Amino acid sequence: MSNDTAGAGWFETGPPDDRDAARNAIDSGDADGPEDWPARAVDSGFAEDESAYYDALHDATLHATREAVEERERADDQQLIHGVRAMDDCERTANELAERAIEWAGSLFDDVEPGIEGAREVAEREPTGEIEERAVSLAARAADVSDERDAIAATIERVAPAVAPNLAEMAGPELAARLIALAGGLESLAKKPSGTVQVLGAEDALFAHLSGRAPSPKHGIIYTHEYVRGTRPEDRGSAARALAGKLTLAARADHYAGERRETLHDDLRERMATIRGRADGPNGGDGSEGATDGDESEGSR
Amino acid sequence: MTEPTLPDGVERREMDGENRLATRGEPVYGEPTAGGWRAWDPRRSKLGGMLELGFDTGLCGGETVLYLGAASGTTVSHVADFAGPTYAVEFAPRPVRDLLDAAEPRDRLFPLLKDARKPQTYAHVVEADVDVIVQDVATRGQATVAVRNAQFLADDGRLLLAIKARSEDVTAAPDEVFSEALDRLRDAYDVLETRRLDRFHEDHLGVVATPK
Known about the structure:
The complex is a heterodimer of chains A (301) and B (212). Chain A has 301 residues and is mainly α.
């Protein structure tokens, strides 16, 4: 709604006396710049005088902000867990259905491409006969489920920062949601030691290690984070340990305080620069970011 | 201590045997009260600290105020006690619950769940030409927030800003952080006064500025 209302005051987009319209306008409206809203409200007849305008504004902002806070808090960690699980189910199901539909369609049509994109193309076809109809329809279902997966992913992107601002900023919304899902909730994630967070999602490898069959896993799901994956293999253990430590603190800040903690993010950036600096030769490890010059020499540590 | 600049509605009162800053209004966070006045603790409030230290804030009472980083409403409740219409912007939902409680009995305090880094998301609510912007946000880029919000401020208005060094860069020396922030601030403001708030708030710089 931002296009048609840009430049309009919060009271100008809905009927007066409609608290929910006002709530919606305050919540999701915008303007390029401020105006003398009180005067405009009086001129347009929204309010009798300035004092009446401020009374209405007080009422509207209390209502809108109370509802917005409730909505943001209702979007809790459990919803995020449902979301991330549903997203994974949709992805798996879409792939399975697409595979089946493509195999079927391949026996009926020429030029059938594999994957979800192939299913999308099949879904566009005009079927002739009952069998073609079924194959095309199945391909359409696969594409729909894949669209649902993308829609859920977009919702997670939006909701995760409200549920866990620090964790979502540090890990990215999707990984944040996955960590919460693996732990079973934000509270249980906040209560886990960082060594556990480091290997969340690597339970198989961990139990193989505990029964003496394998080395200890260096990382679990946090492997998907650029700080781990983008670090050279010999430093990945350090990177994973540093990241897991800060993710744990981020989860605690989110659960117990609910406010952004800028220092957490600064500390991690600094620590990662140090770890990655090791790859850059004798002067590495001074914490300077982007020290990637090819000053390779050996035996520097 | 000289007190050239206490605005109307802010007074020094005897409370619990101490001479303390106070405003008149409903108590908000369990602060000491006496005869309708509530103590304003400079240790819990950057603006309270600036008044206690004798900054020339230009405040005289009754102003229209945009308060950025209202948190749970500790300071903004005192501001609303002596100022006029007061817009309180805060982005984190949890503290806003307390802010709502502070705003309920104050009919010229308007709470907004908005991100101070994105003024376009509240420019349709906050009026133009406010007399004062008070800013106490703990995110990186505090000076940028102030610059972006300069559009709300009247030409002769005042920015009362507390810069927290650790929010910008934990590793740099606070003095360096402050001088960088002031440079950025000068894109939109003339800086009138700066002083460290260390007596009440460690590694914070208080700034009074006016639009260029």
